[in-house]
Amino acid sequence: MSNTSNATIAPTINSNELINESIRQINTAKIALISLALILSATGVFIITFTIIKIKRLLNFTNVLVLNLCWSSLLLAITGLVNALSDINAGFQTWQFGDFACRFIKSMFFMVSVVIAYTLVAVSYARFRIICQPFRPPPERHYAYFVIAAVWIVGIACGIPYFLSLHVIQLRGSPFCSFNTVPPALNIDQRKGYLIGLTIVIFAIPFLLQAALNISIATAMNTGKPKIFIDPKDDKIAGVKRQLTLMSIALVIIFFVTWLPYYILILLQTFGHISLLQFQGDVVLYYQNVRIFLLIRDLLSGLIYCSSIFNVGILYIFNPHFKAALKRALYCSTPHRRARVESEVTITERSMSVVSSMMAGKIDMKY
């Protein structure tokens, strides 16, 4: 891309004001979008947290991981709002919150993406244990806390190179959160390699793991289903297990649909296919396509910030335990209603693992 053809090399005051006014309008819309997404995400997180904590039976390995998933998404939405506030206060890509916040908030995207990707892998593994290894007990709740600690350690480690590469610079009296040019910061070639590595870590490896786990689950459920059930409840339990498997798949699909497009945009910008700013000494030059890029970027980031509310919908549609528990927590005011909904929440993951043994033909069913 030619800098001379696509950049405003010697912008006049009027042209700069026009560009800045357009950017301010986009940033105002971005504030509204992210604020709405933050409200929806916070609502979803609080609904899930309230339901799981109130109904103690739901506080199991899988649902603790789901809580980590939702709170991580909410944390990212909060950092996104801080970014938007910085833009609207002083102009595009300027920064008002200091050097550490520049490093931490900008690198949070990569940290949280790693956390969410491998939390989803752990959720699928829990389903795999229950359905494909029925003689083994499902993972206990306390193991979920070790998994959460591990994925956050990995996520922070993956974000450290990006963290070290950022700093605040002053140009014409305005602070910019920009890449540093001295060690331990990454140079441009190292940043490209770093982002390629992150793409493999965040998307390629989790995709292969998810595919292997879910293919094994689907195979076990299709081959292990007996033609005749001893008890009608067994058929109902098999349906519940199918729904929970669909829940895991839906969470993975939402992750890739909401995160991958935005990540591709970052890669295109890093590899020079999209250029927004150019620095000539202490003069900041805006490219003419900056407004289109900002609109696309903000729409894609809005999808990420809304992921928590998507998760609520997935849990309500595909997880009968959560659906029944939510009804109990929100709507059951009479003893009759409480008793009726309580009966809907009686199937626990441990009991399902025992029944799955029968479904797979691993327990003699004639008795």
The outline comes out as: globular
CATH class: Mainly Alpha
| Low-confidence parts | 1-15, 226-230, 278-287, 345-367
The structure class reads mainly alpha
* CATH superfamily heading: Rhodopsin 7-helix transmembrane proteins
Q: What's the alpha carbon Rg, rounded to whole Å?
A: 25 Å
Instruction: Please state roughly what percent of the residues sit in beta strands, choosing from under 5%, 5-15%, 15-25%, 25-35%, 35-45% or over 45%.
Output: 5-15%
Task: Give me the strand/helix succession.
Answer: HHHHHEEHHEEHHHHH
Second CATH tier, the architecture: Up-down Bundle
Counting structural domains, the number is 1
Largest sheet: 2 strands, antiparallel
Can you give the helix content as a percent range?
Answer: over 70%
Textual characterization of the structure:
This protein has 367 residues and is mainly α. The chain has a single domain, classed as Rhodopsin 7-helix transmembrane proteins (Rhopdopsin 7-helix transmembrane proteins, Up-down Bundle). The chain is 74% helix and 5% strand. It contains twelve helices and four strands. The chain has helices at 3-6, 13-54, 61-90, 99-132, 141-164, 188-224, 232-270, 290-305, 307-318, 320-331, 335-344, 349-359, and strands spanning 166-171, 174-179, 277-280, 283-286. Strands 1-2 form a two-stranded antiparallel ribbon. Strand 3 (277-280) and strand 4 form a beta hairpin. Helix 2 (13-54) packs parallel to helix 9 (307-318) and helix 4 packs parallel to helix 6. The longest helix has 42 residues, at 13-54. The protein starts with a helix and ends in an 8-residue tail after the last helix. Residues 1-15, 226-230, 278-287 and 345-367 have low confidence and may be disordered.
